[in-house]
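Q: Please design a sequence for this.
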């Protein structure tokens, strides 16, 4: 019987400071410290503030992760951290910290691709807090967040083919920027989702960028611009709460229509019988409902990342580190640097 491997994972790719302890395929702890309140007054993430908070919070979240897992630092067999993509200065804070811990403890180190961590998060059981890789099958994966919108054909473990990505604004970025135009606090995407539930999605029509294109790429900058011009020409819309709800519902409908159409097309092209979704925007209520409709209609398996693993967290980083270690991948050189812009392959 193999000796269990204990992993300390760190995630600081944007504005969440997270530390987790993984034992083989099980999550013993996953501590996340959010900076949302600090950045909200600026309407977005301020890199300098993010780095300062990461440096302050890293010792706290790592200590808390060890305590919750009832694990001592000396019990750790492997260290992992997000290597990229993300905010360079924010990534650096966690990556260098993890490398320092690995060097001090004389343990192997794995730098993990941020998208790859999201890619496998739907296979984490929230009830059992473990990776259910025994259920894995080839799938189309929609990774959708504030910084990224990707469609990936996952043929097998670590065999990926990116079928489409955003050529400008990501879906989450579009949600947040439209929310800012409306006057909603940062992060605006979740606020829009709540208001949209009370609105009429057919009240206003907005373009569905690249919907008719046969490729699987995305573009949301035109939709954001269309909303800006709409508000310029119809400023009184923001004077009535029901109109605001209708506006949120109409914009949400446009974004989700594109995400669903492209995902459906990817399923048809590849012929897979499984679809997954991850990333912060995968918490969107309408997106989840529409993905469930596709899965039911096509009689295929749907795996949605649990809400606690949708946003950036160290548990998914540690899970991928475990998978790579188990598959025999070589550790990352301790002299390696972050990769702020890194294409998933």
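A: Design:
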């Amino acid at each position: 019987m193999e000796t269990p491997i204990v992993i300390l994972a760190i995630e600081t790719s944007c504005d969440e400071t997270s530390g987790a302890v993984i034992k083989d395929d099980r999550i013993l702890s996953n501590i996340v410290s959010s900076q949302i309140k600090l950045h909200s007054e600026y309407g977005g993430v301020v890199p300098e503030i993010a780095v300062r908070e990461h440096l302050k919070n890293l010792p706290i979240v790592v200590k808390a992760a060890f305590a919750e897992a009832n694990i001592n630092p000396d019990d750790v067999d492997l260290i992992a951290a997000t290597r990229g993509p993300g905010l360079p200065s924010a990534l650096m804070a966690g990556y260098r910290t993890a490398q320092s811990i690995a060097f001090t403890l004389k343990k192997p180190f794995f730098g993990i691709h941020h998208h790859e961590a999201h890619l496998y998060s739907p296979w984490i059981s929230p009830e059992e807090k473990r990776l259910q890789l025994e259920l894995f099958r080839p799938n189309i994966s929609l990774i959708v967040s504030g910084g990224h919108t990707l469609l990936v054909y996952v043929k097998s473990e670590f065999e990926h083919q990116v079928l489409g990505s955003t050529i400008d604004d990501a879906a989450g970025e579009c949600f947040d920027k439209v929310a800012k135009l409306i006057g909603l606090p940062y992060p605006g995407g979740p606020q829009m989702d709540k208001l949209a539930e009370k609105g009429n999605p057919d009240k206003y029509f907005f373009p569905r960028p690249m919907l008719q294109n046969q490729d699987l790429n995305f573009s949301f900058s035109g939709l954001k611009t269309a909303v800006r011009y709409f508000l310029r020409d119809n400023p009184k819309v923001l004077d009535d709460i029901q109109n605001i709800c209708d506006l949120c519902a109409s914009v949400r409908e446009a974004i989700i229509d594109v995400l669903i159409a492209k995902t459906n097309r990817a399923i048809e092209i590849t012929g897979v019988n499984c679809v997954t979704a991850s990333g912060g925007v995968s918490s969107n209520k309408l997106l989840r409902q529409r993905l469930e409709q596709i899965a039911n209609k096509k009689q295929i398996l749907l795996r949605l990342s649990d809400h606690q693993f949708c946003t950036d967290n160290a548990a998914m980083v540690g899970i991928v580190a475990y998978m790579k270690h188990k598959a025999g991948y070589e550790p990352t050189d301790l002299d390696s640097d972050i990769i702020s812009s890194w294409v998933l392959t």
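Q: Thanks. Anything notable?
A: The longest helix spans residues 241-270. The mean pLDDT is 94.
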